Amino acid sequence: MRVGVIREIKAQENRVALTPAGAERLVAAGNEVWVETQAGVGSLLADEAYVRAGARIAPSAAEVWKNCEMILKVKEPLASEWPHIRPGQTLFTYFHLAADRALTDAMVKSKAHCFAYETLEVGRTLPLLTPMSEVAGRMAIQAGAQWLERSRGGSGILLGGVPGVDRAHVLVLGGGVVGTQAARMACGLGADVTIMDVNLDRLRYLDEVMPKNCRPLYSTPFALRELLPWADLVIGAVLIPGAAAPKLIRREDLKLMKSGSVIVDVAVDQGGCIETCKPTTHAEPTFVIDGVIHYCVANMPGAVPRTSTFALNNATLPYSLELARLGAARAIKENAPLRTAANVIAGEITYSAVAETFGLKYTPALDVAARLS
Q1: Which of 263, 278, 303 is the last residue of a domain?
Q2: Which residues are catalytic?
Q3: Which domain holds residue 209?
């Protein structure tokens, strides 16, 4: 198969979907690999490294889109890229379709085969989401700590405090990968941390493994409202695979929070778990509502592309190899994890959470694959 890699054009996105090591593996498996020139420059990966791995450097993204049967990306295709997508072409990337009706409609109209990193499941885990969730969870605390500084409009509190002075209070919503990493980072900096979840087994696990300055707490709307006046930093880390994130903090709840407190909504890719959330960029990462700073960057790991690119490629490469080997229809039939990644196939929505979000028709991926054979 001819596999293409294009340079990401989302604002401040410096990751690339394939490393030279990954390109070498794909070539060794009998594929052609086309890489848009300078696609890896944001991650300090030069064209020459891809050439040494056996890849072909294309002069433009248009050439890659035109000539390749399968496209590897990091972020969802932007509107300017939609005209390049053709029927039968396979795309493998983060889509987060439930947060974007226009993108969903465009992918349906394209009749391409859209496989989403974020919904690929193995034993009730999300292995292609996990590495970026780890990065984003850790970065959420870094970002929160910076925006709590008075020079940036925050309340001027140091996360860990100092002897004789109270430490910052951090509230983490969600005890999954993002939330756990965020809580661990905040604890390491000495903050007073509460992490909330509705899964009792997960809370028991967190109670055993987290430091003593982390308090796992069962999440209810009442308990959340009780904690908001206490919190200096709130991390939104709620995930329902493939579906829009539930809104846990409403607009009226912001009035309970202290002026200069900070919200970092890592769930923004899935619509955000804070009602007042809207996607921002690394260029303009924040906005203020009711005195509360909102940090809602939709591609946080893009700020540390060297780490993120290699972490992502380590996770995605085995599935990229299988998708290239089998093609879309056989992958759906023969590879259970890739079947769960199938979101839109040949113009039909094949992931139920996306269809339910927009009230659209859902068709099982196996049914569509049978017709493609």
Answers
A1: 303
A2: 96, 269
A3: 130-303
